[in-house]
């Protein structure tokens, strides 16, 4: 993937690419990142101007953005263009999955009061991180960059972790690491039992429980019999251990 960021602060993007999963994606050849300095496409580097109508603040002019877009298109082909806007569609995991399959992705970073409205002629999607306002689009670009980079083939050491991501189906289950006990708080015994089927059931139960508690709007409609049984039991206030005992007493073997 080629990832283009049109910005007046290319150093922010360059620095970010030196760390973590984005650095790994670049290193293994799954990702190329091109921070494009809008000042290089503006006479005397003047990228902003006052808005017509006497409104406050400064607005990024259309010329440098159109010129930078043309430069990218001429050299690498037409990109799919995202524009961060306060009213844009909130980014979801499904969006990241979709964008990760694109060859050329571009994020246009506005600043101050935003970009000249005519820039939207270049834009495929207006997107947002949430109902709040930032000073510019660079942080949004970096969020998308990291969210997409970890999905590219060969980037994660254990691709299985993608399947367990929150928002694939349920929210993620609780996770623990060493030591087995810390300040009186113990790792659940099932996780150190070595019983892999039981561990999978425990993880599914707690994923369903967490989803129901924090994001009931995400509960799927196409539940398997096991998921439906767990969901109904959780709604009744049962614990995983209680649910497991009822299965054993009724001779239903959930790990068989």
UniProtKB/TrEMBL annotation:
Pfam families linked: tRNA_m1G_MT
Sequence positions that bind S-adenosyl-L-methionine: 110, 129-134
Main location class: cytoplasm
Location in or out of the cell: Cytoplasm
Start and end residues of each tRNA methyltransferase TRMD/TRM10-type domain: 1-219
GO MF term set: tRNA (guanine(37)-N1)-methyltransferase activity
Record keywords: Cytoplasm, Methyltransferase, S-adenosyl-L-methionine, Transferase, tRNA processing
Catalytic activity reported: guanosine(37) in tRNA + S-adenosyl-L-methionine = N(1)-methylguanosine(37) in tRNA + S-adenosyl-L-homocysteine + H(+)
GO annotation terms (biological process): tRNA N1-guanine methylation
EC number annotated for this UniProt entry: 2.1.1.228
Any single Gene Ontology cellular-component annotation: cytosol
InterPro entries from the UniProt entry: Alpha/beta_knot_MTases, tRNA_m1G_MeTrfase_C_sf, tRNA_m1G_MeTrfase_TrmD, tRNA_m1G_MTases_N, tRNA_MeTrfase_TRMD/TRM10
Family: Belongs to the RNA methyltransferase TrmD family.
Known role: Specifically methylates guanosine-37 in various tRNAs.
Subunit structure: Homodimer.
Cited HAMAP family: TrmD
Protein name per its UniProtKB record: tRNA (guanine-N(1)-)-methyltransferase
Origin organism lineage: Bacteria, Pseudomonadati, Aquificota, Aquificia, Aquificales
């Amino acid at each position: 993937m080629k990832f283009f960021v049109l910005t007046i602060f290319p150093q922010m993007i360059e620095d970010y690419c030196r760390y973590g999963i984005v650095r790994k994606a670049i290193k293994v050849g799954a990702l190329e990142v091109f921070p494009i300095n809008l000042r290089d496409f503006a006479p005397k580097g003047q990228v902003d101007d006052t808005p017509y109508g006497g409104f406050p603040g400064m607005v990024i002019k259309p010329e440098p953005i159109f010129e930078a877009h043309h430069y990218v298109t001429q050299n690498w082909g037409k990109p799919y263009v995202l524009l961060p806007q306060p009213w844009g569609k909130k980014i979801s995991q499904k969006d990241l999955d979709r964008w990760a399959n694109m060859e050329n992705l571009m994020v246009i970073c506005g600043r101050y009061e935003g970009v000249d409205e005519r820039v939207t002629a270049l834009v495929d999607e207006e997107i947002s991180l949430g109902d709040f306002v930032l000073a510019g689009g660079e942080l949004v670009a970096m969020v998308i960059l990291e969210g997409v980079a970890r999905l590219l083939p060969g980037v994660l050491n254990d691709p299985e972790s993608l399947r367990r991501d929150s928002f694939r189906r349920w929210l993620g289950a609780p996770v623990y690491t060493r030591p087995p006990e810390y300040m009186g708080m113990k790792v659940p015994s099932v996780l150190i039992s070595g019983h892999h089927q039981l561990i999978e059931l425990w993880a599914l139960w707690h994923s369903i429980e967490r989803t129901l508690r924090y994001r009931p709007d995400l509960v799927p409609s196409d539940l398997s019999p096991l998921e439906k049984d767990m969901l109904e039991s959780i709604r009744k206030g049962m614990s995983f251990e209680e649910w497991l005992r009822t299965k054993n007493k009724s001779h239903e073997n959930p790990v068989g």
